[in-house]
């Protein structure tokens, strides 16, 4: 049985969330959800997450998993909100503990924050099996962009998060704490071992003028046409290109608020004694 995929675009962050579903069992997984956030006012919202919930209800699916490909730096996750509404389990790669330890220091988080991944319901090991209903899948550790990046593979569909973009945009940056261009190259080679017809579902797209936004490509298209890593690219060429390119990139606009939420599995910080939740802004750290 081929897994069915419905994709949802979040305009403010150029993020694609996906619902991967088993038509036979009516079970589904939500991948890379988004919590609406206005950085000017500090207001959060759930309109985008509610769209996912509505789609599940309209199509008579039950969410079994809420999956993160990594702790994103460009949008806040709605995982905890969705778990509260749907009762599904939140999963992420076991590398999240390294990300938590790194950013617990950056944000000087209080002693009650435990960088052990316990905020999530399940931490996936490399090559671990995962099921959506009757469909068996596996989790591939694909670090390089971040320590915790994973790819979820279900039959002929793979969800790669930020590791790869459309062929005309290339690959993920590697200049965040824990990023490593050489490791990213190796991870992409692992992904390229999948059959050429494998559908790759991406988390973002930033198309050049004249091309419509897209969230799906194939292994074959990537191997032939990816401008950063294709069949003729060497690891040394890639590392040099990636490091040079990353040195010129600005920080993502939402990295500071999003990381604080996403290492908590989408949970907002606890309210302080005035009943208000606060996000920290480290000065002169980056």
Sequence-ordered SSE layout with sheet pairings:
Elements: E1 4-10, E2 15-22, E3 27-31, E4 36-38, E5 43-45, H1 47-58, E6 62-67, H2 79-86, E7 89-93, H3 96-106, E8 122-124, E9 129-132, E10 135-141, E11 150-154, E12 157-161, H4 181-192, E13 199-202, E14 216-218, H5 219-225, H6 235-246, H7 255-262
Parallel strand pairs: 3-6, 6-7, 7-8, 12-13
Antiparallel strand pairs: 1-2, 2-3, 4-5, 9-10, 10-11, 11-12, 13-14
Helix pairs in contact: 4-6
Low-confidence stretches: none
CATH class: Alpha Beta
Structural class call reads alpha/beta
Average pLDDT metric: 96
Rg of Cα set: 18 Å
Shape: globular
Identify the CATH architecture: 4-Layer Sandwich
CATH superfamily: Ribonuclease Z/Hydroxyacylglutathione hydrolase-like
Placed side by side, the strands forming the largest sheet appear as: 1-2-3-6-7-8
Binned, the helix content reads 10-25%
Number of helices: 7
The CATH topology corresponds to Metallo-beta-lactamase, Chain A
Strand content: 15-25%
What string, H for helix and E for strand, traces the elements in order? EEEEEHEHEHEEEEEHEEHHH
Distance between the termini: 47 Å
Largest sheet: 6 strands, mixed
Number of strands: 14
Number of domains in the coordinates?
1
What report would you give on this structure?
With 286 residues, this protein is α/β, with parallel strands linked by helices. The chain has one domain: Ribonuclease Z/Hydroxyacylglutathione hydrolase-like (Metallo-beta-lactamase, Chain A), CATH 3.60.15. Helix content is 24%, strand content 24%. The chain is built from 7 helices and 14 strands. It has helices spanning 47-58, 79-86, 96-106, 181-192, 219-225, 235-246, 255-262, and strands at 4-10, 15-22, 27-31, 36-38, 43-45, 62-67, 89-93, 122-124, 129-132, 135-141, 150-154, 157-161, 199-202, 216-218. The strands form 3 sheets. Strands 1-2-3-6-7-8 form a 6-stranded mixed β-sheet, covered by helices on one side. A 6-stranded mixed β-sheet has the order 9-10-11-12-13-14. Helix 4 crosses helix 6 (235-246). It is globular. The N and C termini lie far apart (47 Å).
